[in-house]
Design a protein that fits this description.
Layout: H1 8-18, E1 48-54, E2 57-66, E3 75-83, E4 90-91, E5 104-108, E6 111-115, E7 118-120, E8 126-128, E9 132-136, E10 141-145, E11 156-160, E12 164-168, E13 171-172, E14 175-176, E15 180-184, E16 189-193, E17 205-209, E18 212-216, E19 219-222, E20 227-230, E21 234-240, E22 243-252, E23 264-268, E24 271-275, E25 300-304, E26 309-313, E27 327-329, E28 332-336, E29 339-340, E30 344-345, E31 349-352
Length: about 350
């Protein structure tokens, strides 16, 4: 029998002591004269985010995360909604169950699907959750979908051809997994896709652009001594339309800037856009697994799955890290919450530009 594996918090402490979205076409973007977005009702980081068009117009959602204490007790269920044009966010009914971190959300067919995440106990024990919660924004009612076969957190997700939702790699209780789990909302059923060929990671960033899954970097497990280190690699997987569980993976050239952990990302047409993140993997308090304070990176860039080329984009006004994604609403792109310099949890909503 293999020896038991330690949770991330335990490994981090030991090491420190020793050493998506399916988006609108960009030409439909809203006016440059739009008013700036309001701040969240409270600072929150590592929150799941999504946006979709409702009967009230375009709406942006934030679920779960960690508050400004950055303590295990600050892991929250707090959830919010902002209708574009409104002067403030409103508090909404949270998903059922405990507060958790590192969940991922995707809009699909007028609903929002919220996958996984992990809880943190007072003693530091962490548990990845299998649950899939579904929000109907018209009624505010949550329902439960079929659970993930392998519970994961800190994964990436994306919607393919308005039919399937892919959940790629991530952390499962005591180690990363290479699994690509595919959820079919029409059948409320799961299938397994071709696993990623690179090192399994958590805190990576990416999305699905056309038939391409694109993701970068994240944290991988180092065996000796067992800890977490930054994985600097970029990958593209081509989904076979005739057999969507079959994915042809290939490594692509490295992206601009440093390797990144918990950057924000979203698919826009044939491109996947990335912004922020940190070059030092860290625990939920913003302190690196190497004992150093993590700081946000200030840049942004995009990968075009149609051409295989990277391009640099204008940097966000405020560098941030600790994200689950970028959201696009009515053609406008937003980073919601996160951590700014000095590991400060923020309620700021930053609008970013998708073109140079």
């Amino acid at each position: 029998m293999d020896p038991p594996r330690l949770p991330r918090a335990v490994i981090a402490a030991a090491f420190a002591a020793a050493a998506a979205v399916c988006a609108q076409p960009e030409e439909q973007r809203g006016s440059e004269a739009e008013s700036p977005p309001p701040r969240l009702p409270m600072p929150v980081a590592n929150n799941a985010v999504a946006a979709l068009e409702t009967s009230a117009g375009w709406s942006v959602f934030s679920f779960l995360g960690i508050d400004s204490t950055k303590l295990w007790s600050g892991v929250t269920t707090a959830s919010f909604r902002w209708d574009l044009g409104a002067s403030e966010w409103e508090t909404i009914e949270p998903p059922p169950g405990p507060g958790r971190l590192a969940a991922t959300a995707q809009p699909f067919d007028g609903r929002i699907f919220l996958f996984g995440g992990y809880t943190v106990a007072e003693g530091g024990a962490e548990q990845s959750l299998p649950q899939v919660d579904v929000l109907d924004p018209e009624t505010g009612v949550w329902t439960r979908a079929a659970p993930m076969p392998t519970p994961v957190d800190d994964a990436i997700s994306g919607v393919w051809r308005d039919s399937l939702i892919y959940v790629v790699s991530g952390w499962h209780d005591s180690d990363n997994v290479a699994a690509v789990q595919i959820y079919d909302p029409a059948r409320d059923a799961w299938a397994q896709g071709t696993p990623i060929p690179g090192p399994p990671v958590f805190g990576h960033a990416g999305g699905i652009a056309g038939d391409a899954i694109v993701y970068i970097d994240g944290a991988r497990v180092q065996a000796e001594p067992r800890t977490f280190v930054l994985e600097t690699s970029s990958w593209q997987g081509r989904i076979d339309p005739a057999e969507p569980t079959r994915i042809s993976w290939e490594r692509v050239p490295g992206h601009p800037g440093p390797g990144l952990y918990r950057a924000a990302a979203v698919a826009v047409g044939t491109r996947v856009v990335f912004a922020g993140g940190s070059d030092n993997p860290y625990n939920y308090n913003g302190i690196g697994y190497d004992g150093r304070q993590a700081e946000p990176w200030s840049g942004a860039f995009a990968f075009d799955a149609a051409t295989g080329a990277w391009s640099e984009l204008p940097a966000p006004d405020t560098p941030t890290m600790d994200h689950r994604g970028i959201v696009i609403a009515d053609g406008r792109a937003f980073i919601v919450g996160g951590m700014t310099a000095g590991q400060r949890v923020t309620g700021r909503v930053t609008e970013i530009r998708l073109r140079p």
